[in-house]
Here is the input.
Amino acid sequence: MDKIGYYYQLTLKMFLEQGMSFAPNQIIKYRDQLQFTYTEHYNRVKKLSNALKSLGVRPGEAVGMLDWDTHRYLEAHWAIPLYGSLFHTVNVRMSPEQIKFCINHAEDVVLFVNEEFIPLLESIQDELTTVKTFVLMTDTPGHVPSTTLPNTIEYEQLLSQQSTAYEFPEISEDTRATLCYTSGTTGNPKGVVFTQRDLVMHAISVLISFSCYPQGMNVQANQVYMPLTPMFHVQAWTVPYFAFMLGNKFILPGKYEPSLILKWLSEEKVNHSHCVTTILHMLLFHPDVEKYDLSHWRVDLGGAKLTRQLAERAWELGVFTLSSYGMTETCPAMTICNIKPEHYDLPVEDQIAYRIKSGIPYTWGQIKVVDEDYNEMPKDGKSVGNVIFRSPWCTHEYFHDPEKTKELWRNDWLNTGDVGYMDLEGYLVITDRNKDAIKSGGEWISTLTLEDAISQFPPILECAVIGIPHPRWDERPCVFIALKPGQNASAEDVRNHLLKFADAGKIEKWWIPDLPDGYVFIDAIPHNYIGKIEKVTLRKMYAEGKK
Here is the structure.
């Protein structure tokens, strides 16, 4: 049958134009330094699209950005993909070697660079093989950073040369839109590509799951929004797209400074944010946190398990938390802990038990727990298997890496590399990454469950569990512990705390780490650039300590 009528393409322009239609006078604030109306922001986006053309960028070519969460980053999130180019959100917390690899692998032709990262790029400039122009960005009006980088122009100067007369081209929803790289803990980072359609479908699904379920995130029009997941990390989970569509006031924090973030959360009465658990932990255990009113704030958590300790701390301060589970390749949403109708009337302390699970799928997502032959495991709350996922927004492409793409999509499901189980009520519970799981005497120990129990011991600020070699049982658990300032505790104290959990049937008694090797006290738990605990580093620390 011949196609009749206009076939509407799902592109990011939908969110941008709807926001402009609904709330043209809404405000976007950058720290305490600048603010723009949506109309002013829209005009700057069009100038930036014109600037790409003036720099000789062609549709389909990659454009990279190294910046904090600024107004410039938000402008680029629209302008670069809607011009038809591939927006490479460079992870500024990677090592210089990894950043060099990613820029070359992406084949970036232009790099937008915050002046803070100019020295980093100067140190690798002779090894960047595709970059033709560097656009320098600064928070100081009228300042042009000095640099040895070739072919440079300052961001505001570049925009000042452009017209606001720009029509976004009609592009296919299958056009590559964004490119971000995984952490690369085993080998080089992998480039994860999302199309316009992927981003649109993800954003709509997250909005539905955030807005339509009682006792959830309750995201609505005209609220105040502060992103606390870096914009370089999976497009800030696509929340900026629909937050703009809803006419939300934006509070952009730039480089994260806990005391300033707490001040803005309170003063601006921020309604919703998203962040990794490490960021929330940093804020809620800040020495001045109780000076601020955070009772209006709702936070979606990802990146690592939300522990009961952290959820209860949030509850004490009036902060609503909701746990999500995902990964870079899923844009990142897979599951969210929206509670079910039968749980609405439970006391908060009982609801927390549900809110810290991995959750139920986001709208239109499909998730299974399977064995090695892809047979689905019983949903009995104890049958652990591999977690696989499907949705309308998962990546279908590791950039320039078809073999790893095929491996990711074995059996036509996205293979997460995580293990877990489905409980009797249909909630997914992640027990481990495959690489972090502990097998002791032929049986599995859930490090995440053990960490959650240990973290509830009041003197403990943070903890992490790894597997260590054992001559009889192959592996045994070892917990690394960072205590709260001024607190004291011994290995025996922690073990006695865990025995209470075992007596209550919440963990297996044989999971409890052995004395003395199973307890290591350190000043701080190491994290990577997106807030995940670096268990590779902890394994090295343990091995070096045994030499």
